[in-house]
Amino acid sequence: MIQLIFDYTTLRLIWWVLLGVLLIGFAVMDGFDMGVGALLPFVAKTDTERRVAINTVGPVWEGNQVWFILGGGAIFAAWPALYALSFSGFYLAMFLVLFALILRPVGFKYRSKREGIAWRRNWDWALFVGGAVPALIFGVAVGNALKGVPFHFTDDLRPIYEGNLFGLLNPLALYCGLVSLSMLVMHGAAWLCFKAEGPVAERAAAFGSKAALITATLFAGGGILIWLGAFGGYQVTSPIVWDGPSNPLGKTVAVNSAAWLQNFRATPWLAIVPLLGIVAPLLAAAGFGARRSGLTFLASKLGIACIIATVGLSMFPIILPSSTNPNDSLAVFDASSSHATLRNMLIATVIFLPIVLAYTAWVYKVLWGKVSATTISQAGSSAY
After folding, report:
1. Minimal CA–CA distance to 37: which of 87, 89, 98, 104?
2. Which of 16, 84, 154, 298 has the largest CB neighbor count within 10 A?
3. What is the pTM of this model?
4. How many CB atoms lie within 10 A of CB 132?
């Protein structure tokens, strides 16, 4: 059994799954932080109400950011070619994300340092940017991954990226950006309903219900576009050597309008994943209306997980397709780190990931409870 787990093929598949788990973990854990930021100017009308919304995420957002670091670290160590291309080719987009994310801790720390109306209003909008912009750009990145990225490799495996920032803003990418934004707004609203009391929770339910319906509609619409062949997918046509060396130049890849449906046709039961990606947001919308905050938050989590998992299952075994030279696309079987690196990283993950999960669970247990205008008044200046 141990020998099977440490087999090179198995390790590549495990790290493909772990990459998906980390991306889902980031979207689920840090996603409601971004969603709350994006909703802040709309669900809170007074300074006290804004403090209620902010303090639902203020104690936990830093811990939630760990998932972002874990995801980036996993890409760097397990999929170095993917890291090199995405973090260099998407450099300007990544810079915008980091700039927006930097606004969030600054906004949390400085907003309550002064009582001026203009001062606090400006930081509220900074928190809005820190939530809405990353949510949009992460979806744009996924859209470009589905469409294909303009890159190729030289004979000595040096990656060459041929795109630019404006090329990333194509219709498909923007469509996926809207899916991501509405999805995380839904999640942020579900969190506010779960953690806040009073008018903030009531307004969040109204916005969340709309965002959930938009998410389900846009995601279903994207599936219809794929089914109609509105844009091409990528399919490996040469024999796959799962335990071979990591060399993306050794295969042939064809552009096929039905490629992103191929895995679901080959394994029909996988269709339950995109189906849940539609049903779960609809359940969340119903939960907002029924004021069932716990079930709404769980449905929101499930919807996010299934939407992200659908992308991974559609593209497998492709990780990042090349639109200029499809044969140079990165795949699970030819873009990973060495056998030893994947093995050692898996051992470290098995040891330390449960510690991270246990600590996270303990933090949320300690911080359990609702945030209201009364708790903000009692906390005084110690609250955000």
Report:
1. 104
2. 16
3. 0.92
4. 21
Q: Which two tokens stand for residue 253?
A: 């890849």
What does the pLDDT read at residue 322?
93
Neighbours of 237 (CB within 10 A): 14
Domain ranges in the chain are: 2-382
List pLDDT tens digits, range 177-236.
Answer: 999 999 999 999 999 999 998 899 999 999 999 999 999 999 999 999 888 877 889 999
CB atoms within 10 A of CB 214: 19
**Whole-angstrom distance, CA of residue 304 vs CA of residue 296:** 12
Query: What's the token pair of residue 43?
Result: 């669900």
Three-class DSSP category at 215: helix
For residue 44, give the DSSP letter: -
Calculate helix-pair angle for 293-315, 199-227, nearest 10 degrees: 20
Closest alpha carbon to 300 in 282, 281, 286, 277: 281
Of 165, 106, 329, 145, the C-alpha closest to 236 is: 329
- How far, in Å, are 12, 13, 82, 366 from residue 332 at the CA level? 7, 7, 10, 40
C-alpha 109/C-alpha 78 separation (Å) is 35
C-alpha 238: how far from chain center: 31
Task: Please check whether residue 189 is in contact with residue 204, taking contact to mean a CB–CB distance below 8 angstroms.
Answer: yes
Residues 260, 315 contacting (CB under 8 angstroms): yes
Integer angstrom CA distances of residue 120 from 37, 123, 174, 353: 14, 5, 31, 38
Do the beta carbons of residue 342 and residue 15 sit within 8 Å? yes
